[in-house]
Amino acid sequence: MSFSVWAPHHERVLVRVDGHDHEMTPGDGGWWHSPVDGTDYAFVLDGDALPDPRSSWQPDGVHAASRVYDHSRFEWTDQGWTGRGLPGAVIYELHIGTFTPAGTFDGAIERLDHLVELGVTHVEVLPVNSFDGVAGWGYDGVLWGAVHEPYGGPDGFKRFVDACHARGLGVVLDVVYNHLGPSGAYLDRFGPYFAGSNDWGPGLNLDGADSDEVRRYVVDNALGWLRDFHVDGLRLDAVHALVDRSALHVLEQLAVEVDALSAAVGRPLTLIAESDLNDARLVTAREGGGYGLDAQWADDLHHALHVALSGETSGYYPDFVGALPKTLREVFFHAGTWSSFRHRHHGRPVDKRLPGYRFLAYLQNHDQIGNRAVGDRLSASVSFGRLAVGAAIVFCSPYTPMLFMGEEWAASTPWQFFASFPDPELAEAVRTGRRREFARHGWGESEVPDPIDPETVRRSTLKWDEVSEDRHRRVLELYRSLIALRRSRPELADPRLDRFRVDDGGDVLVLHRGGLRVVCNLGPEADVPLGAPGEVLLASADARVVEQAVRLPAESFAVVQLSDSQPTSVNFSASS
């Protein structure tokens, strides 16, 4: 066995193995090595014993020694797994710590059959890397390759991935490379890992002196999840905060190396970006001048849907009043247009030759719920009818649908911001900062949940017994039906944006999906002309076709199969 660490500007490095210190020998490129056998280890720099930046196992937390982990010892059963690509996918986002009362990988495995019955194809797991404390969202990770021990550690995550594959579910892991958390971030003690900071913490040195090994740190971490944990894809958090002026951006470098790994393992591997840039170059092929990522989140579509369904116009929502038709057609509402929230022009248009599946559409996600003051879900303030219309738009659009855990039954539980930093000063700083942030938006201090209180975690944990209650079961049946219809009708999963049309009639939208019309009514009862006879395939209320029009109750949708499958225009002047 040999221990290695990158510490380019140190004159002496020791490795402490099972309590005994050993000198390390300097090698090429700032790396140090020591051929020692043992189990628990830490690197001693200037008298301090620090965990391995590339640790795979932190059984005692992010400040303690690392433990040797042998990936080859896990007995996988997914040898027949050939992977799942993104085209035609339906993604389900979940947080291990609040998905079940157990808050573990093994607890989550017990609910996977529910996801299979729902009809999703991929499970997107919020970050599982090690962070300080027991409970947290995972975005304050500091040891990116070590699985959070309270969830079940590295073996627990492998059991989860293996169980997903056994059920035909792909696994996408959320990873954070744009910053490190505030407790246990020792990277800068080893070398020049950091360069500046952003809103969330220290950022990485991706293009300065000695940055080659820092970039290698990021890419190797990503490859490790895909190769060693059999993960099928990665969701890359807030890539707009990755400052990299290199000719080869780290995202493009990552895409190139993931493509090579995909060829080696013989299954598709997916990279999904979260980006605030409204720039589709991220998901444009490299031969077309892009970075070559597979997909990105479409926040503008969420914002337009949220405003249309809820009527909320605070924060960054004012720009999105009446924006739903345009955003459905063009993905980005801000495509070189003025953004009042940013006080500047923002974004660029999407090339309609790009397939729609490269953009994720959603009514809710962890950010859009959890970053609200009280973590309230859309279902807390919006009627069943409006929720149904929103779900129909998401699942019948040419984009890749994603839903957040519990959305499929309109869960009564909020999903609030929480953390559990053991350091009392840091805990108080997080508590005070959260309350001060929302006080600026008119919330009283007592109204903002205490993120450090364990009750906030319990309050945010799904209550699975409510699934069988009538009002929740009704929503679940609707979601199952929409997903089943999308999977059974190729028109609904068709990603070709140049064949997708949206007719706008104020309260009524009609999505043209081949020979299907998805008629969505957010207003009072209306007769919507179809231009041809048709048959209702699925509806959220008592819709019916009358001659060449569909009669829709207030706040409802209907998916109609036209007898004449030729594209027809809708004249809204005939509707009532």
From TrEMBL:
Active-site residues (renumbered): D237, E274
Pathway it belongs to?
Answer: Glycan biosynthesis; trehalose biosynthesis
The record's subcellular location field reads: Cytoplasm
The family database entries (InterPro entries) matched by this protein are listed as: DUF3459 (IPR022567), GH (IPR017853), GH13_cat_dom (IPR006047), Ig-like_fold (IPR013783), Ig_E-set (IPR014756), Trehalose_TreZ (IPR012768), Trehalose_TreZ_E-set_sf (IPR044901)
Q: Which GO terms describe its biological process?
A: trehalose biosynthetic process
Q: Name one GO cellular component term.
A: cytoplasm
- Positions of transmembrane segments: none
Any idea which GO molecular function terms this record carries?
4-alpha-D-(1->4)-alpha-D-glucanotrehalose trehalohydrolase activity
What Enzyme Commission number does this protein have?
Answer: 3.2.1.141
Arranged from A to Z, the UniProt key words for this protein are: Carbohydrate metabolism, Cytoplasm, Glycosidase, Hydrolase
Q: Identify the main location.
A: cytoplasm
Q: What class of enzyme is it?
A: hydrolase
Query: Which positions does the site annotation Transition state stabilizer cover?
Result: D367
Identify the stretch annotated as signal peptide in this record. none
Q: Matching SUPFAM superfamilies, A to Z?
A: (Trans)glycosidases, E set domains
Family statement drawn from the similarity comment of this UniProt entry: Belongs to the glycosyl hydrolase 13 family.
Q: PANTHER family under this entry? A: 1,4-ALPHA-GLUCAN-BRANCHING ENZYME, MALTO-OLIGOSYLTREHALOSE TREHALOHYDROLASE
Q: Which NCBIfam families match?
A: trehalose_TreZ (TIGR02402)
This chain belongs to the protein called: Malto-oligosyltrehalose trehalohydrolase
Query: Which organism does this record belong to?
Result: Saccharothrix tamanrassetensis
